[in-house]
Design goal:
This protein is of the alpha+beta class. The chain folds into 2 domains: 156 residues, Alpha-Beta Plaits; 63 residues, no CATH class. It has 6 helices and 12 strands. Helix 3 crosses helix 5 and helix 4 crosses helix 5. The relative contact order is 0.16.
């Protein structure tokens, strides 16, 4: 698995990092098997410069013989620079093996201030591709954090996987599974095998390294929850 982290690619007047990540995923799909795009929520604090909600994104890419992070970084960098917005501070991270120290950094970035210098030192120590692509380059913090969180398999929510974004309105559980959702379950882990699910804002959680739709009963259908 290759993890591609992106952060701080937009301004208040432009489309967000998630939109760019999905566009890059679609472009890479011609040469790679892209398993999904996962959104991660980082620390929300007045001391943290951010566009809106301080979120970052990770593309999950199956290597399939294309396991060179540098080669993939070249592809993604070109697309990010082509979409560069003055006023943004984009960062890019590409990693194959992700050590626990990087996942710990990601968890810390969700609850406390972490620095660009710390991110760079950590990436260098573990041989992880990390670079800033403009502005202050502070996006390297979220890019590395996003990769670390995604690598745990237990954090974030999918903004794209399989055919999930083709679903709309009320759909049977079977349709979610056919679209690439690995499982549908309640917050306490009980599997949901039948019933209609509202899919207009479906954002499966990343659990066990898979997209899992966590739902609650809303009277006559299942309502998906947004979990990080």
């Amino acid at each position: 698995m290759l993890f591609v982290g992106l952060d701080d690619t937009d301004t208040l007047e432009t489309r967000g990092t998630g939109h760019l990540a999905r566009a890059i995923a679609a472009a890479l799909a011609a040469d790679y098997r892209v398993l999904g795009v996962v959104r991660h929520q980082l620390l929300v604090d007045p001391r943290v410069p951010c566009t809106k909600n301080n979120s970052s994104a990770t593309l999950l890419v199956e290597a399939d013989g294309h396991g060179d992070p540098a080669r993939l970084a070249d592809r993604v960098r070109a697309m990010m620079l082509a979409d560069f917005v003055v006023g943004s501070d984009p960062g890019l991270c590409v990693a194959a093996g992700v050590p626990d120290a990087v996942s710990d950094f990601g968890r810390r970035a969700q609850r406390e201030l972490v620095s660009q210098a710390e991110a760079r030192v950590l990436a260098r120590e573990h041989g992880i591709w990390l670079e800033g692509l403009g502005g202050t380059q502070d996006g390297v913090i979220g890019a590395l954090a996003s990769v670390g969180l995604s690598a745990t398999g237990e954090a974030g929510r999918y903004v794209w996987t399989g055919r999930m974004r083709e679903l709309c309105g009320l759909q049977p559980v079977e349709a979610l599974l056919a679209a690439g959702i690995a499982a549908v379950q309640t917050p306490d882990g009980r599997p949901v095998a039948e019933g209609m699910v509202s899919t207009d804002r479906l954002r499966p959680a990343r659990r066990g390294g898979r997209p899992v739709a966590v739902v609650e009963w809303a009277g006559d259908h299942w309502l998906p929850l947004k979990l990080d």
